[in-house]
Design goal:
The complex is a heterotetramer of chains A (408), B (930), C (203) and D (92). Chain A has 408 residues and is of the alpha/beta class. Chain A contains nine helices and 18 strands. Chain A folds into two domains: 186 residues, FAD/NAD(P)-binding domain (3-Layer(bba) Sandwich); 154 residues, D-Amino Acid Oxidase, Chain A, domain 2 (2-Layer Sandwich), CATH 3.30.9.10. In chain A, α1 crosses α8 and α2 crosses α8. Chain B contains 20 helices and 49 strands. Helices cover 21% and strands 29% of the residues of chain B. In chain B, the strands form twelve sheets. In chain B, strands 8, 9, 10, 11, 12, 13 and 27 form a seven-stranded mixed β-sheet that branches. Chain D is mainly beta and 92 residues long. Chain D is globular, with a radius of gyration of 14 Å. Classes of the chains: A alpha/beta (408), B alpha+beta (930), C alpha+beta (203), D mainly beta (92). Chains in contact: A-B, A-D, B-C, B-D, C-D. Chains A and B meet through α2, α3, β12, α7 and β16 of A and β6, α8, α9, β30 and α12 of B. β16 of chain A pairs antiparallel with β30 of chain B, so a sheet runs across the interface. Bound molecules: flavin-adenine dinucleotide (FAD), nicotinamide-adenine-dinucleotide (NAD), flavin mononucleotide and zinc ion (ZN).
Chain lengths: 408, 930, 203, 92
């Protein structure tokens, strides 16, 4: 008898080379997270730019890419957000084939619960905006929530009862590591050098233009440099004298042991701060609220986990005797308007992609696509143009937490 | 055949107390003191389940929390998924089964209680083996407050699995001393599972589970201990490890130390005839104890070439290794590297020990590979922590005792105590150790050489990962899933690193381990949630009138943590009917509402007006004593943050009200500026939210009601004008009456002490009776204010809205040189004519109620998405007064579009609506004076 | 108006029976009762200024100068208790019904100094907690070290108890006063009663 | 759960505090005189160092005082604590 996991697809026998860095590249991408890897892949594939290195300070995709709760959805409020996330979702829908890698993309739907009358208003607002933006979205009443996910407690005796939820059927999850490796393998095959344990320690700028990077493995020259350092974005940008409006915070997640299927979709509740899905092998994957303080330690405080568990049991009493197997933390770079920053910087040929905070996994193919375009053309792709750094000066924010804040 | 593998005597089980249980559909008996694993072994059950991926037979491999194999599902008395048989204490009525893959959650709610406790101590000792007991004993004797936690039912640690009677007696007497000391808390069945900053250690105590159905319901089943220690001693012992050889997953392959524990502690022979395979001395102790208990030892295979070839009459095959364990569904024979074969039903393995470094590493302690030890050991940590005994790589009992003593002493001294008299340590006769050798993988068929038994990961799998290009053990973990199962690689982690290093030809020390993360052992969700569930999940805040509202049938709305009456349905009424009735009563007669949840802040001091001028967009300093002004606060980004009224009580004293949700935030906001920006301002702020209860008395007949209640108060318009207040007595109660209106009607807010709230409310209700006074809730309040175009912060605003967007230019002072938010109004984005403005909307059909959240578009037919949107409906109601539904909306350039028709896409339809002023009711404001 | 019906109501009046039941159910291990209507004045002034001295003199109780302390007096009595709330903030607790008088006395003693005296008597209500398990009961929701040597008679703190902000005052014989905001009082009582289940006497 | 030493109340659990981000960012003396870019810096840009960071905490559950802390953002080690308004100490 074979158990869960035995039906999971095998990884390919070959993933990537481990090359020594060359002395110079057309493009250097800093950070081999999902974003950096996808960017390198689309640079090669869409723009024919293959003399590319992705430099990674640790092991490949060992940052937030290794530690996110893998929720993919595009039901964001504002047009600008819907544009880029929906572009990403469309790419997700063909990604397995494109990368020729089983990434376990599962469109099992995502429910965002509403617990107060204001939540309901915000949810309906988001659903209506989504529809007009061509994003699939539905409003579910509590009974419909229960139909989509039978173990949600929709009774009124919950402290903050479920008043309904928004539902995006095309949303879902994918296996984070496989996604990273799929992009890595495909980029490697197109000639991109993936260089691990190579930390960028300085950015060389001459006459207002980037010329290369200093690393723990020596200087590497570059025509263009693209930052994709997520939690470390401020640290890297500082090397070019650039301050970014981001703050790095710990964000924690946890998994249970493997369980028989009980949770067929993804349920998120902002009000009580818990996000749940059941991964392919059967473990419950849950995200928590963010730790309040700045932190680069890849770990958070325990009361956040305790809070998350009480929230989980409010919504899912059936989880009472499930066990937490492992908790962990990542470093998320949060912007004042909870939207990312993707585009040019004050330094010529130095590009920035950061500020995805708690929700950038879902954007991986989309941002890789647009960022590669931005780098190749020296100007923003229309989908990331609204996410420029100078919006903070003009005030043209894309405020995703004021209205219908949903993290992840 | 009852317990045929049970020894005739010995062990720490209670042979007088038989325990009946069921496993895999069959009934068995064991003894009190057994674990499920020891009871199964006693009954000859050697295979517990099949493996997750390959479906191979699997049995009991270890004797404690490190067990990777013997997963079970408890079905009764209450379903609990995925436990290890080695950690389930046996109790009467236990029903369990082996678990190959996924655990099962219960369908019914868990009736058990769970709770948490905070504990503080000078010295926390984790682990009550010889090292931990010694440490705790010294620390306690010094007078320090000590907490000692151990995950076993009784103190003693590894000693419990030995026949070291001297040491065991010592342990028992130390434990007795500790129990008798009021400054010591000795917690058994308690696992420290998380070690966090500032010596914060989280533990879980399993309090009643081992009692089975007899567990008292009023006691918490599991308890989380949040322990804050000034100094920590980790004496968590070590886990024995195996190595990779063919068939090393067969039931009957067991860690040598575990077998020793089964014989000595549980009086169980794990087999009849054993081969022992070792790389170090420790397995000889196991062999000796098994031999004495009547287990035949077929041979000892010792990988060390210089091992003594004879031991107690047993052949020692020095310098040899195992080629494979052979058998169908359990070990039948063991084949050596030279082809020799020994029939055996048990293969005891020891490939060395891994100090239990998980907790140490969780909190940032470094682990370094010690080549002599052949394992990773503690090597420096920022916390105030000592590591002692096997956890530190020190294995002889004497060494553990000495290290524990030293650690306890150091911890006590570090926290200001002087070590005192301690119980003398036992003397133990231990042979000097011969150095071990270190092996990871033996030659053979890599596809049957298991590294992680629980995840079915073999050497072949690891070779595929390294072959694919992986160089990091973190990648190999994720590619193969090694170390990610229930046991988190307690026995397999170091082995995985060893095998990867071996395959890559690198040093295992350079390669390192994967990251240790809490929890050290799995912990239930319910334990972590504790009592913060249901009504206790988050405080329910109520006003002084809550029981009255409940008794009068109110339905409640959660507003932040508050419960506010939403509406008061009468028989047969739905929301709409009730609200229509309530609204009509207020517009035509008189209504009353509990407005106590508004935040109230007493702001006083010579510079109070200066502070308020800086924080509100409008001018507050010009307010006269006795008068009231509405004010708006913005964040520095210029977006509306809060609104409310400001009452001037004296030249240097104000009472500020805030929205219900923002009371704390506004007070924090004020204190922030006072303490950090303008410490020169002489202002004191005090929250008085609950000091006062507030009853809104609203409607054209409100003056008459107030007149009746406060006969001495002149209430006509001239004597008591709009936006003024009076201190007076109402219904004989000291009260502050404010003439404020949030509905456009003549209205008063009556403020009395929280203690007097019910008395006031009942008096108003009685006095209003002749006028048909009607209680109303938040929904009616919202309708009434919306008819007047008054925004609700948080409903009609979303953090992207300025006062100007709300059409409230009048509340933004042009005179003040600065106030918080002012500078932002000058940014490019704020000057755009097409910002979204708050406007009114009237559906052209006079009947459609627009959903709140609906969007508006310009065109009569929808194009393909993305459809350009103009804005959205923020508030929408049926209006009794207007006789039609209406809405408020934020619309791009809305104020310049008055009278224009736009469309709300609702389902398939496009509903035409006309943009109007947001003030739809009594725009001239004639009603406010009655 | 029927004046006699206009009775004051303390925030926990409705819970008195349930609290009394706790003592019975726990065999006296835990005793919880509301002390309603205590006078409470929030006092804010410069601890080093003349107002501090004048205020203390008027009260007959020294203002505690540091955290963790509560003082009582006038000498030999504990009619008034002054709790340190912050570096320039105290809570003066007195017998029911004295708030106006006490506030007036304080204000006139302080004179023209920049100080605030705010009547907050109804803002919080007070619970008296005692019995052999009182400390454990608190420890299940309070992160402070409540060991008698650390938090004994005369100790005080503002902190969190469960999810409510409270002022904790150590009293004689291991008893405590817990001051909680009126709107949170019902929650806290529910929480305490639930916590006391642990100490139920069973037969 | 860090133990944060409130300069007034002594060490208390992190849960008793509110985080206030970077310290020593003062409200501009004359906002009207700032360029849009400088005003944006005040509004949105804060240091985000990996390592020692001067930051603000408010002891919201107790004395309600704001104070400053220098904390290592990698290790959470608290290197200094000082009242609001005092200059940032030099950390070796
Ligand atoms: C717990 C958690 C849950 C989350 N859940 C979700 C979710 O459900 N859905 C979702 O959409 N998003 C989620 N996210 C967010 C998502 O993970 C991130 O937004 C996204 O991964 C960021 O992009 P990335 O993959 O490129 O980042 P990373 O994977 O973090 O990549 C950045 C890389 O840059 C490297 N780097 C940094 N500095 C340097 C340097 N100087 N030199 C070289 N390399 C450097 C880092 O080591 C790292 O590998 C979650 C995040 C966390 C932490
Ligand atoms: N001969 C050898 O090579 C060898 C090797 C290892 C150990 N040993 C023997 O083991 C003993 C080591 O003594 P010791 O005191 O260092 O360790 P120990 O193993 O005797 O005691 C450790 C105790 O800590 C408990 N524990 C571990 N982690 C815990 C946690 N997170 N929370 C709560 N409890 C936890 C364990 O269950 C155990 O009871 C000695 O008797 C030694 O001889 C011998
Ligand atoms: C979606 C998802 C599922 C995971 N499932 C498991 C799991 O079943 N077992 C496990 O031990 N860890 C699991 N992890 C956590 C990883 O082991 C690891 O903690 C995470 O990648 C962060 O890395 P670190 O803890 O090594 O820092 C999972 C992580 C994610 C993001
Ligand atoms: Zn404090």
């Amino acid at each position: 008898m074979a158990g869960p996991g035995s039906d999971l697809p095998d990884h390919p026998d070959w993933l990537w080379r481990n090359p020594e860095p060359k002395r110079s590249y057309d493009v250097i991408v800093i950070g081999a997270g999902g974003h950096g890897l996808a960017t390198a892949y689309y640079l090669a594939k869409n723009h024919g730019i293959t003399n590319v290195a992705v430099l990674e300070r640790g092991w490949l995709a060992g940052g937030n890419m290794a530690r996110n709760t893998t929720i993919i959805r595009s039901n964001y409020l504002w047009d600008e957000s819907a544009g880029i996330y929906e572009h990403a979702l469309k790419l997700w829908e063909g990604l397995e084939e494109d990368l020729d890698y089983p990434i376990l993309f599962s469109q099992r739907g995502v429910v965002n619960l509403a617990h107060s009358l204001q939540d309901v208003r915000d949810s309906v607002r988001r659903v209506e905006a989504n529809r007009l933006n061509g994003v699939d979205a539905e409003w579910l009443d509590p009974q419909q929530v229960k139909e989509v996910c039978p173990i949600v407690n929709v009774s009124p005796d919950v402290r903050y009862p479920v008043l309904g939820g928004t539902y995006q059927p095309r949303a879902g999850i994918a296996k984070h590591d496989y996604v990273a490796w799929g992009f890595a393998r495909a980029a490697d095959a197109l000639g991109v050098d993936l260089i691990q344990h190579c930390e960028v320690t300085g950015l060389d700028i001459a006459g207002g233009r980037i010329t290369g990077v200093q690393t723990t493995r020596g200087r590497i020259a570059a025509g263009k440099v693209a930052m994709a350092a997520a939690g470390h974005s401020s640290v890297v940008a500082r090397m070019a004298g650039i301050d970014l409006p981001v703050q790095s915070h710990p964000l924690q997640a946890l998994v249970s042991e493997l369980l028989e299927p009980v949770h067929p979709t993804v349920v998120m509740s902002n009000a009580v701060h818990v996000y749940v899905s059941q991964a392919h092998k059967g473990e419950l994957v849950m995200g928590a609220g963010i730790d309040s303080y700045n932190g680069y330690g890849q770990r958070g405080a325990f009361h956040i986990i305790e809070r998350q568990m009480s929230a989980a049991l409010e919504l899912f009493p059936a989880f009472a005797r499930a066990h937490v197997l492992r908790t962990w933390g990542g470093i998320v770079d949060v912007t004042p308007d909870a939207s990312p920053i993707v585009g040019l910087t004050p330094v010529d040929e130095l590009y920035v992609n950061c500020g995805w905070g708690t929700g950038g996994f879902k954007a991986t193919p989309g941002v890789g696509w647009c960022y590669a375009h931005t780098i190749a053309h020296g100007e923003p792709h229309p989908l990331n143009a609204p996410f420029s750094l100078d919006r903070f000066t003009t005030g043209a924010l894309v405020d995703e937490h004021g209205a219908a804040a949903v993290a992840h | 055949m009852s317990q045929e593998f049970r020894t005739t005597s010995g062990g720490r089980i209670d042979r007088d107390q038989a325990v009946r249980f069921r496993f895999g559909g069959r009934d068995y008996e064991g003894y009190a003191g057994d674990t499920l694993a020891s009871a199964l072994l006693a009954n000859g059950v050697i295979q517990t389940s099949t493996s997750i991926k390959l479906g191979r037979p699997r049995g009991i491999f270890a004797a404690g929390v490190e067990e990777p194999n013997a997963l079970v599902q408890v079905e009764e008395p209450f379903p609990e998924p995925m436990l290890t048989a080695t950690t389930v204490e046996l109790y009467d009525g236990l029903v369990a089964r082996g678990l190959p893959g996924q655990g099962r959650l219960a369908n019914e709610p868990d009736p058990a209680r769970y709770d948490a406790m905070h504990a503080h101590c000078d010295v926390l000792v984790v682990g009550a083996g010889p090292a931990g007991l010694a440490a705790a004993s010294v620390a306690a004797a010094s007078g320090a407050r000590v907490v000692l936690v151990d995950d076993q039912p009784e103190p003693g640690g590894s000693l419990l699995g030995t026949r070291e009677t001297g040491a065991l007696d010592w342990a028992a007497s130390v434990a007795a001393d500790l129990r008798a000391n009021p400054e010591v808390r000795l917690l058994t069945r308690t696992t420290a599972f998380g070690y966090y900053d500032d010596n914060y250690v989280i533990a879980v105590e399993r309090r009643t589970n081992h009692l089975g159905a007899a567990a008292p319901a009023h006691l918490s089943r599991e308890r989380i201990w949040r322990i804050r220690a000034r100094h920590v001693v980790l004496a968590t012992g070590a886990h024995e490890r195996s190595l990779a050889f063919d068939g090393n997953d067969l039931p009957g392959v067991m860690l040598a130390g575990a077998a020793r524990t089964y014989v000595n502690r549980y009086g169980v022979r794990p087999g009849r005839r054993a081969v022992v395979f070792t790389t170090n001395d420790s397995a000889y102790a196991a062999a000796a104890d098994l031999l004495d208990a009547g287990v035949e030892i077929a041979a000892i295979v010792d990988a060390r070439p210089d091992a003594n070839p004879q031991w107690r009459g047993v052949e020692v095959l020095a310098g040899h290794t195992i080629a494979r364990a052979r058998g169908e569904d359990r070990v039948a024979a063991v084949v050596l590297d030279d082809g020799r074969e020994f029939a055996a039903d048990l293969l005891l393995v020891s490939a060395g020990w891994n100090p239990a470094g998980a907790l140490y590493s969780q909190v940032g302690g470094r682990l370094r590979f010690d080549a002599d030890l052949g394992a990773f050991r503690p090597d420096g940590c920022r916390q105030a922590v000592e590591v002692a005994g096997a956890a530190n790589g020190t294995y002889p009992v004497v060494g553990c005792l000495a290290e524990g003593t030293a650690a306890g002493q150091k911890a006590a001294e570090a926290t200001g105590f002087t070590a005192g008299q301690v119980r003398p340590l036992p003397t133990i006769d231990e042979r000097p150790a011969t150095p071990p050798v270190h092996l990871w993988a033996l030659p053979g068929d890599e596809a049957t050489q298991f590294v992680d038994l629980q995840r079915d990961v073999t050497v072949a799998d690891i070779r595929r990962a390294t072959g694919a290009g992986m160089r990091s053990v973190e990648h190999v973990k994720r590619y193969t899933t090694a170390g990610t199962a229930h046991d988190q690689g307690k026995t397999s982690g170091t082995l995985t690193s060893g095998v990867v290093a071996h395959l890559l030809g690198v040093d295992v020390g350079d390669l390192g381990t994967t990251t240790f993360r809490p929890p050290y052992a799995p912990v239930s969700f319910a334990a972590l949630a504790g009592r913060d569930r249901g009504a206790l999940h988050d405080p329910v805040r109520v006003t002084a009138l809550h029981s009255w509202h409940e008794a009068h049938g109110a339905l409640f709305e959660n507003v932040g943590q508050w419960k506010r009456p939403w509406y008061y349905p009468q028989a047969g009424e739905d929301l709409h009917a009730a609200v229509r009735r309530e609204c009509r009563a207020v517009r035509e007669g008189v209504g009353m509402m509990d407005a106590s949840t508004l935040g109230k802040i007493d702001v006083q001091g010579p510079d109070a007006a200066v502070l308020l001028d800086r924080l509100y967009t409008n001018l507050i300093s010009t307010l006269k004593v006795g008068a009231i002004r509405y004010g708006v606060m913005c964040r520095a980004d210029g977006m509306v943050f809060d609104d409310g009224t400001v009452i001037r009580l004296a030249s240097d004293r104000f009472l500020v009200t805030t929205t219900t949700g923002n009371a704390a935030a506004v007070l924090d906001w004020m204190e922030d500026f006072l303490q950090t920006e303008w410490p020169d301002l002489r202002v004191r702020c005090t929250s008085v939210t609950e000091q006062w209860a507030t009853v809104a008395l609203v409607g054209p007949r409100s003056r008459e009601v107030l007149g009746a209640l406060a006969p001495h108060l002149p209430v006509d318009n001239a004597d008591f004008p709009f936006m003024t207040w009076r201190d007076t007595s109402v219904a004989g109660l000291p009260a502050r009456v404010c003439r404020i209106s949030f509905s456009g009607e003549l209205a008063y807010e009556l403020n009395v002490s929280w203690w007097d709230a019910l008395a006031l409310w009942e008096a108003v209700y009685a006095a209003g009776e002749p006028f048909g006074i009607t209680t109303y809730g938040t929904e009616t309040m919202h309708v009434l204010r919306a008819e007047k175009g008054y925004p609700i912060i948080g409903q009609d605003t979303d953090g992207t809205v300025t006062p100007q967007d709300l059409g409230m230019d009048w509340v933004v002072s042009k005179k003040k040189p600065d106030f918080v938010g002012k500078r932002s109004f000058a940014r490019a984005e704020n000057a755009r004519p097409d910002r979204k403005h708050l406007v009114g909307l009237l559906p052209d059909d006079g009947a459609t109620l627009l959903p709140e959240g609906a969007h508006l578009v310009e065109m009569e037919t929808l194009p393909e998405p993305p459809v350009p949107m103009l804005g959205h409906v923020t508030s929408s109601y049926h209006s009794a007064a207007l006789g039609r539904p209406f809405a408020l909306a934020l619309i791009r350039g809305g104020r310049d579009r008055m009278g224009e028709r736009v469309y709300a896409p609702l389902g398939e339809a496009l509903v035409p609506v006309t943009i109007t002023s947001p003030v739809l009711y009594d725009p001239e404001g004639t009603r406010r004076d009655g | 108006m029927a004046e006699q019906t206009l009775l004051r109501q303390s925030p926990l009046a409705f819970a008195a029976d349930r609290l009394a039941e706790v003592t019975r159910a726990t065999g006296g291990a835990v005793y919880i009762a509301e002390l309603p209507f205590l006078t409470q004045l929030n006092l804010r002034l410069d601890p080093k200024g003349p107002a501090a001295e004048a205020g203390a003199l008027e009260l007959g109780v020294p203002l505690p100068t540091g955290p963790g302390a509560a003082t009582s007096g006038p000498a030999g009595s504990d009619e008034l208790t002054v709790v340190w709330l912050g570096p320039d903030e105290w809570l003066v607790i007195g017998p029911p019904g004295t708030e106006s008088d006490l506030a007036a006395r304080l204000r006139s003693a302080i004179g023209d100094e920049h100080a605030a005296v705010v009547d907050v008597s109804a803002q919080r209500t007070t619970l008296e907690l005692s019995g052999p398990r009182a400390r454990d009961l608190l420890a299940s929701g309070c992160a402070l070290d409540l060991h008698p040597r650390v938090f004994g008679e005369g100790a005080s703190a503002q902190t969190l108890l469960a999810r409510a902000q409270v002022i904790l005052v150590g009293r004689r014989d291991g008893a405590f006063r817990v001051l909680v905001r009126a709107s949170f009082a019902a929650y806290l009582v529910d929480w305490l009663i639930d916590a006391s289940v642990e100490y139920r006497v069973t037969r | 759960m860090m133990l944060i030493p409130c300069p007034w109340c002594g060490p208390r659990e992190e849960a008793e505090f509110h985080y206030g981000g970077q310290a020593h960012v003062s409200y501009p003396a004359d906002p009207a005189a700032l360029s849009d870019a400088d005003w944006a810096r005040y509004l949105f840009f804060r240091d985000n160092p990996k390592g020692p960071f001067a930051e603000r905490w408010n002891h919201s559950a107790s004395c309600r005082r704001w104070f400053n802390v220098i904390r290592d953002t990698v290790t959470n080690e608290i290197l200094a604590v000082y009242p609001a308004g005092q200059p940032k100490p030099v950390i070796a």
